[in-house]
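Suppose a colleague, Dr. K., hands you the sequence of a protein chain of 388 amino acids and asks what its three-dimensional shape might be. Before reaching for any lab equipment, you can write down a predicted structure in C-alpha cell form. Begin with the sequence itself:
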Amino acid sequence: MDTLLKSPMIKKMSSLHFVIAILFISTLYVTVCNLFFAEGSAMHVSNYTVSLLGKYLCYALLALAVDLVWGYCGILSLGHGAFFALGGYAMGMYLMRQIGDRGVYGNPELPDFMVFLNWTELPWYWAGSDNALVMILLVFAGPGLLAYIFGTLAFRSRVSGVYLSIMTQAMTYALLLSFFRNEMGFGGNNGLTDFKELFGFSLQSPTTKLALFVATAVVLAIGYGISHFIVNSKMGRVVTAIRDAESRVRFVGYKPEHYKVWIFVVSAMLAGVAGALYVPQVGIINPGEFSPLNSIEIVIWVAIGGRGTLYGALVGAIVVSYAKTRFTAIMPEAWLFGLGGLFVLVTLLLPKGLAGLVTNLMDKLDPPSKDKQSESDASVKNPVAENK
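The predicted structure, expressed as C-alpha cells, is then:
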C-alpha cells in the first residue's frame, strides 16, 4: 500500500484525473456487468441497481453545485433544491409532450392533467416544450435566470451569512407553494409523471436506463472538470478570496457582487442539469422536490463529504444517499435521527469531512519532506512571492 501511494503516477495525478478515472472505471464496470453477465451471476448488476446508481450520480452533480458556491465562495445556499426542481420540470414538460395520444384521455396536444382540469389549450409557457432544443435551453435558462435575478438583488444589497441562507430557503418554499397550485399548469401536487419515451427511446427499456446512467456519469465528469477549472482559474482565486476576506477584496478594487452572481448562476445551471437527468430515471417530478428539507440535506452531503474539495461533495452525496436507501428500508422512522447524528459527529470529529480524513491518512502514510515543509511555510509567510 505504501509503495502504491508513493508511486510517481499517483503523486502526479490531480483530483480531476483521479475523479474522472474512478468515474470511467465504475461506469465501465457497471455497463459490462449489466450487459454481459446473467441475472443469476454474482457479477450481474440489475437494471434496478443501474437506475439507482444513476440517481446517485445526479445527486453527486447537485452536491458539486452546492460545494462550488458554499465551499469556495462561502455562500450557504439552502435553496439549491429549487434549481434542481426547475431543471427537472423543464425535462418533465418535454417528456409529457412526448406521450402524445397515448395518455389516458388520448389527447395528442394536452397532457392528461390538463384534460382532467378542462383546459382547452396549452399555456403560453408550454410553447415549444415538445422540442428537444427548447427543453435543453430551458434546463439551463430556467435555473440560471432565477439565480441571476435572486443573486443580483441579494448580493448588490450585500446580504450575506444566515440572512442569505434564510432568503434562499424562503425562495424555494415560495416555489413549493406555487407549484402545488393546479392553476400553475404543472400538474399540481401530483406533478408530472407517466413518461413514455425520451428522444424516441422507451424509458422502460433496460438499454435506455443504462444509457441514461452512462450519460449522467459523462455529464458529472464534465461538470467536475468545469468546476475544477473555475476554482483553479484567476476568477476562482478571487471567489475564494471573497469567501475568506470580502472587505479586503472590495478594498483592492474588485466588485465581489459580480463574482458572487457569476458563480451562483453557474452553480444553479449545474443543479438544473442534475434535475433534468434525474427525472427520466425516477419517472416523476412533483413539487416535493422544492421542499426546503431537500436543500438542507444537500448541504449535509457536502459537509459530510468535505466542503471546499469538490470530490468530497461527490463522495458525501453518494455515501449518504446509499445509507438512506439502506436504512429507510430497515428503519424508516429513525433515518432522519441517524442523518442528524451523522452530521453532528462529522462536524465534531471530522470538520473537514471524509475528504479531510483521507488527506490526514495520506499525510501519515507519506509525510511531507523537510524541504517541502520549509517551502510551504515560506509561502504562507510571504503569499505574494507564491503568486509571482
